[in-house]
Amino acid sequence: MKSHTEQPNILLITADQWRGDCLSAIGHPLVRTPNLDALAEQGVLFERHYAGAAPCSPARACLYTGLYQMNNRVCINGSPLDRRHDTLALAFRRLGYDPTLFGYTDQSEDPRVLHPNDPKLRSYEGMLPGFNWRVSIPDHQYPFLSWLHERGYSDALSGVNMCIPEAGVDDPPQGKVPRYRAEHTETAYLVDEFKRWLNEQTLHTSRQPDNRWFAHVSFLRPHPPFTVPAPYDTLVSADEVADFNGATDPAVTAAMHPLLDWIVESNPKDRFIPGAEGLARDWTQHDLKQIAATYYGMVAEVDAQIGRMIDALKATGSYDNTLIVFTSDHGEQLGDHTLLGKHGFFDSSYHIPLIIRDPAATGGKRVRDFTESVDIFPTLMDRMGAEIPVQLDGKSLQPIIDTGVTPAHWRTAAHWEYDFRGLPEGDAEKRFNLGSVRCNLSVLRRDNIKYVHFAGLPPLLFDLTADPHETHNVAGDPAYQAIQLECAEALLSWRAEHLDRTLTMMVLTEDGVVAG
């Protein structure tokens, strides 16, 4: 076991829209993730880890800033990240690292520090402050498409084009393969670039032995479009997929709450299968099971590419001094409650994987206590022996990684937020007759109870002991009145405790600044 005084390499891997239950290490009956399973055996597997928000930009803002959405204020894709916020990348830059990005961070630029004509203000796909971009995968995917052209794909005109099977649109879903082979996915592209960069770092280290690196590899998959090349397309069949959690009729889901009614009525098929027409609610349960089977194949494909990364680390002699974090930004409904995508309040959209393999700690630990995406920033600061910024909302997981024992007074609930404002069109505001600032919800999720508080819509309460799949809202039931009130008070206390404290722990005195 290495000493904590040694400065490790840092490899942060995120796989977009990866559900927390989709690891064979935690018993999923169909998913195959041998490389991540092996990583978990050498590290710590956090079985109840939750995203702080959804979709991509808000979820990643929680991860990168260590702040809950109520403090980082990245509410939707396109919300600018305030330049005053510290980031994980900036913090490691202060520690002497040069954080390098492969993929994307989806953090929109603060318009107050840019000229109005700056093209950065015309895309939500900005880079998190503190990173250098080695290779990007923006929505237009031009770098990836150019890479495909070099490998003989003359018809690689767009990412959507490459995902539509040569035989035509895959609707109803049958698991048809995309136009590229397994060695030519976006994931493989990023791994190839990471391996080339890693070789450069190895050469650099041979000349400067104290050189340490920080790489963030941000994979797009298993984010839609739901398509995967052979051999991953046939790993799981639709007939093997178990029944989904929750209602099997979209009308039943829609009747549970006004927000769900809106999601069911407005979720288009082409968000998940390129070229498909109509709404996702029109797909049958078997159609959704085929999508789930394809998704499980996508998970396996990403796992195989992560295996290539680990092999490269071992081949270059870097593995034994590299701290690896594997996680996601948010989850995926994947048919639960008849829904696809990431939204609302269900666990499926927020429960995500977390594996941390620290070369200085004993592996094989599993943690059932609640952890949150905001915990990763303070954990890495703690691991480096650096001061944890006072404003961070998360808790360091390093004591758990070191000892396998959860500290006293650990959190007894997970929390997340979802903002459904409809800027710039204002669709949600018109639908619910609410101002944008009231189009949001906050969740308190305990072992046995889940409370969802809306700023402008009715609340939800689920008894998870009697109703583990969240199908029966008991908010307003007299038998649950005391529990609902206690949960509302607990959620209010959580928000009050975590109000921005960047400067509130300081006071100016005649002796200068005194920090509390």
CATH homologous superfamily assignment: Alkaline Phosphatase, subunit A
Briefly, what CATH class? Alpha Beta
Enumerate how many helices there are, as a single number: 14
- The count of domains is 1
Work out the helicity level. 25-40%
Low-pLDDT stretches are: none
Broad structural category: alpha/beta
Q: Largest sheet at a glance? A: 8 strands, mixed
> What is the third-level CATH name, the topology?
Alkaline Phosphatase, subunit A
Shape: globular
Radius of gyration: 23 Å
Whole-number mean pLDDT: 95
Strand order of the largest sheet: 5-4-6-1-7-9-2-10
- Proper CATH architecture: 3-Layer(aba) Sandwich
What's a quick, concise take on this entry?
The protein is α/β, with parallel strands linked by helices. 29% of the residues lie in helices and 14% in strands.
What would you say this structure looks like, in words?
- With 516 residues, this protein is α/β, with parallel strands linked by helices.
- The protein has helices at 34-42, 56-65, 69-72, 88-94, 142-150, 159-163, 186-207, 250-256, 258-266, 285-315, 376-383, 398-403, 427-432, 481-497, and strands at 9-15, 44-46, 49-50, 100-103, 132-136, 214-219, 322-327, 351-352, 354-357, 365-367, 371-372, 414-419, 440-445, 449-454, 460-463, 506-509, 512-515.
- It is built from 14 helices and 17 strands.
- It has an 8-stranded mixed beta sheet, covered by helices on one side.
- Helix 7 runs parallel beside helix 10 (285-315) and helix 8 runs antiparallel to helix 9.
- It is globular.
- The two termini are 35 Å apart.
- The mean pLDDT is 95.
